[in-house]
Amino acid sequence: MSDWFLTHNYQHILALAFAVKEINEHSQLLQNVTLGFHVASDNFEERSTYLLAMEFLSTKDRFVPNYRCDIQNNAVALIGGPRTKTCLNMATMLYNYKFPQVAYGSAALMNNEAETVFFRWMFPDEIHQFNGILHLLLHFGWTWVGLVYFDEEDKERFIRNRLSMFSERGICFDFIECIPKMMYGNEAAEMIEETDKLYKAIMQSTVSAVILNGEIWTILTLRLMVYLLDSDDIPKERKAKVWIMTAQMEFTSILMQRQLPIDFLHGALSFAIHSKEVTGFQQFMWKRNPNFEKEDGFIRDFWKDAFECSFSSEMMDGNAERICTAEEKMETLSQSVFEMSMTGHSYSIYNAVYAVVHALRAMRSSKLKKGRIIDGRRWKLLLQSPWQLHHFLQQVSFNNSAGEQISFGPKGEFLTGFDVLNWVTFPNKSFLRVHVGKIDPTAPPDNLLTISGKDIIWPNIFNQI
């Protein structure tokens, strides 16, 4: 784990664990089969992603890549994300092994088209989100806007492939910029200077709406940028901007940022993968306890950061402002520390587990229909050839426990739409995300966006100018 532990991302792990628990305890999907899982974090580092890929190709607890002999811990699929580069790197490393991979939290984008054969994305086709943003801008008459990317390659790709669809509808961009990458040491001063120039350019612009196209950690950077660089020298009317955030983004925070204001998000609009609350998930989270979850390698790090305490067994000098008792209640945590409602990314992970299981069931049924006897030994041998799962994973179509249909399109994309959410923040640094609209890719073009403008809470500064 990294020192920059993202407490919000712990929910992703719990969504995975909850889905596996449901299937093992209640589901008839895989009779006489017990699912297991292993979770690892790359800490947003590419070298860690490659290391994890090598570990995946090794026998458990033995780092010997390309040599796997542990039939009891035979992985049949990988669920990866939420960063696009994590998925790309895993796809590159595992392409020759034909492992089924399911990505969450980012849109499909591969260096090699052949790699897409082994990938499924719990994310809609990227074009639907851009169409949704376009319709949102037109609906509110925002034809003079700004766009901020957090990755230079993504920015260039947008200019090359998507810019024309906006200009053809009369949308003009005052700026299309990229926030400088985080630098340390001697390069930090230059990075801060470049970021300061960018922030001033955004704030001094006459645009009313700024599109933020980022990923899971983007709000970390944005929150720090606003806190450090906001200035009274910037006219109030220039600060009256609505942030429009893409679905790849989620609210995340680290302990050192917890006291930073989040009021700049008040009135923001964001896209999110369409999701519904899964029955029983909140209760499952509330029952987590570091004293009992011995196999959970993340819970103690989460507990220390979320409740700002230290476990007595880990204290070196006996000094700590607060001792973790394990009697702390997760449901008491502020939403800015940990969300109790299932997020879009967590919902995607939950559905990804079920998609893999439905594919396994279909593969097993296919063998039985051909007259083959699938006993325990043959089933284990079958699972040693995960490449056979691809066909069945592409074909899955089922209703999840929330009653929603789960299926994939021809390019491996998740067939769903987006929710449009309105952010409402409070002085105690808590917030709400209120559902105010949706993007339905299956609707006629004129009805693609449904939005309730009267329910939107706009930035406070809109009412002061």
Question: How are the secondary structure elements laid out?
Answer:
Layout: H1 10-25, H2 46-56, E1 78-80, H3 84-94, E2 101-104, E3 119-122, H4 126-139, E4 144-149, H5 152-161, H6 163-167, E5 172-178, H7 188-204, E6 209-213, H8 218-229, E7 242-245, E8 269-273, H9 281-286, H10 299-307, H11 344-369, H12 376-383, H13 389-395, E9 397-399, E10 405-407, E11 418-425, E12 431-439, E13 449-451
Parallel strand pairs: 1-2, 2-3, 4-5, 4-6, 6-7, 7-8
Antiparallel strand pairs: 8-11, 9-10, 11-12, 12-13
Helix pairs in contact: 1-11, 2-3, 11-13
Organism: Python bivittatus (Burmese python)
Protein name: Vomeronasal type-2 receptor 26-like
Pfam family, one: ANF_receptor
What is this structure, in a nutshell?
It contains 13 helices and 13 strands. With 465 residues, it is of the alpha/beta class.
Question: How is this structure best described in words?
Answer:
This protein has 465 residues and is α/β, with parallel strands linked by helices. Strands 5-4-6-7-8-11-12-13 form an eight-stranded mixed beta sheet, with helices on both faces. The protein has a three-stranded parallel beta sheet with strand order 1-2-3. Helix 1 runs parallel beside helix 11, helix 2 runs parallel beside helix 3 and helix 11 packs across helix 13. The longest helix is centred in the last third of the chain and has 26 residues. The two termini are 46 Å apart. The model has no long low-confidence stretch (mean pLDDT 84). It is found in: Membrane. Its main location: membrane. Keywords: Glycoprotein, Membrane, Receptor, Transmembrane, Transmembrane helix. This is Vomeronasal type-2 receptor 26-like. It is a multi-pass membrane protein.
